[in-house]
Amino acid sequence: MTYLDHAATTPILPAVLTAMTEQLARFGNASSLHASGRHARRVAEQSRERLAEALGARPSEVLFTGGGTEGDNLAVKGMYWARRTADSRRRRLVVSPAEHHAVLDSVEWLEKHDDAEVTWLRVEPTGRITPEALADALGDGVDVAAASVMWANNEIGAVSDLTALAATAHAVGVPLHTDAVQAVGQLPVDFTATGVDALTMTGHKVGGPMGVGALLLRRDAECTPLLHGGGQERDVRSGTLDVAAIVGLTVATVTSVGERDVRTPRLAALRDRLVAGIVEQVPDADLNGPPLDDVLAGGPGRLPGNAHLSFPGTEGDALLMLLDARGIECSTGSACSAGLARPSHVLLAAGADADRARSSLRFSLGHTSTDADVDAVLAVIAPVVERARRAGTGRR
Questions:
Q1: What domain range is 245 assigned to?
Q2: Angle 316-325/371-392 helices, nearest 10 degrees?
Q3: 10, 81, 143, 382: most buried by Cβ count inside 10 Å?
Q4: Is 336 a catalytic residue?
Q5: What is the pLDDT of residues 242-292, one digit of tens each?
Q6: Shared-domain flag, residues 133 and 213
């Protein structure tokens, strides 16, 4: 199989397997006071220090979680509850409609169950959120509990300027959370320098295990916990620490961040060749998101491994299955629920019509991607699109 769905999850790094296997051979609850417990605690705290250094944070700002979904829920709900409790006027959440569903569903849950008011940010056609759009949505900020804008969009790869967005939010006294699940390892991520108040990341996007992640939370950021029972992580997140998973998360993040300067140009070159080859064979294919050479605030304005295209006259799900039958694994811009294809909410938020949003595919490259993977796609993309179009018009 040719695997081009690294944005969904990427293969675990060999160094991670080695480190986790060694840790799994040991035992001990990091909250216990005996020797085994103290050893587990020491390993967890050393991992916290290494992770903090890799991401430009203080160790005390790193809270281990069960992954990106938990981190997003904790940040959005926890910051909302804490800020609303401190001032009952703060009932408004300012959020991008192009967010991952871990953020969108959290916001909509608060709207339904806790009387939160949601202000949806204006999204640029590239998928980016601008400081001007955030400023317009925040107003004077008096009634805003929190804002959330993802660093890099998981579907179309659009990168937003989080430093500028954090400054905009802080100008009116509003904390900003960012989902940086796709950004870590692909973009320069410095928690302190950026100025955001909370940042979500997860292990399995950077070559680590599933089921573990981190929420970076500033020491002065108030966040009401979702889980209660032990207060292990700064009284914000309770639960016995999975030390082996934390070790894997740390090794993967440190490795990914350390290799970024070498990996990023390699992935961008592969992506550019992939997009150029697809457009050459399917001339009406449209690239979604920012241009390939887009630059933002000194860094790439598009994720280097992201190639998201729409193929007019097709259904993304049909393309996905036809490619899968030929050994190409990618993903669709559509989300299926109960067997019904839905247009990409990201493309709709960016102003695309429903047909374009339904006919999209995401090819995402990662640390195992090669020229052979690109060649495999280019060898089959034209006949696959043609067959999907014939199927869509009822012709065989």
A1: 14-257
A2: 130
A3: 10
A4: yes
A5: 999 999 999 999 999 999 999 999 999 999 999 999 999 999 999 999 999
A6: yes
